[in-house]
Amino acid sequence: MTSDAQEQNVREVREVRDVSDAGGTGLGEDSPQEWYADDGLWVDFAPAMFSGDRADTVAALVREAALLDFPAGSRVLDLCCGPGLFLVPLAERGYQVTGVDLSPAMLERARAACDRAGADVELVRADMLDYTEPGGYDVILNVFTSFGYFTDPADNLQVLRNARRSLAPGGRLLVDVMGKEVLAGWIGRPQAVDLPDGSYVVQRDTVLDSWRRLRTDWTLVRGDTARTSTIHSFLYSAAELHDLFVEAGFTDVEIFGDFDGGPYDHHSRRLIVQGRTS
């Protein structure tokens, strides 16, 4: 639970869907579950997912990257904001910033980061499958592969439709993911991250369903104990995500390989898709 002071700054819209049903989802063992609602996952693996180095990188991106340069005073939503790495740099540029996330623990960390920086940011606890704020934003960001979480492809499309509805005319959505083309270059090689307390995290990725989905196993090793969590998400090529944007009603859909607006090619490390509302 958040403290009284935090509750003043973190508002909850709509009832969060119950994911604690002991009966499960009825899916197969290797099917995506509602893993993203497990607060323990985010707490345990946050030091590896959201390291201090990544925070410094994000701050530099927001200051310098062409795709993150918005008109003064723009209303910017960070959809799936996590611990708020983008929130403070965006607020420091003078934008009106909102962060939405389902995780109470991540929202608490985001609030703490904003308070330390004196950043005026609104935080909302909500599921991106349900969240809309009609015409409420000029820009929506969805970064760090925070798209494709849902078992039903129609739900992932609905997230894009919700974003379109939440944008003012002429607004834009940017989605940043690990594209199929990028992932193909290094899939299968486990990655290890050493943490300051002496523990370490191992990440192993496995492609499923003929490159339709990705399974990522995170293992935290601390002393003689290990804790493993599994993340499932859909994989998209540039063409597939482009077409999904079009199906959701976006216009002027563009594909980039970085936040500087560079081309998406064999040198790219990220897939960034931008669409606009008419």
From TrEMBL:
Residues 76-171 form the Methyltransferase domain. The keyword Cell membrane does not apply. GO terms for biological process: methylation. Transmembrane segments: none annotated. Residues 1-33 are annotated as: Disordered. Keywords: Methyltransferase, Transferase. Gene3D superfamilies: S-adenosyl-L-methionine-dependent methyltransferases (2.20.25.110), Vaccinia Virus protein VP39 (3.40.50.150). The keyword Transferase applies. InterPro entries: Methyltransf_25 (IPR041698), SAM-dependent_MTases_sf (IPR029063). One of its GO terms (molecular function) is methyltransferase activity. It comes from the Bacteria. Residues 9-20 have a biased composition (Basic and acidic residues). This is Methyltransferase. It comes from Streptomyces inusitatus.
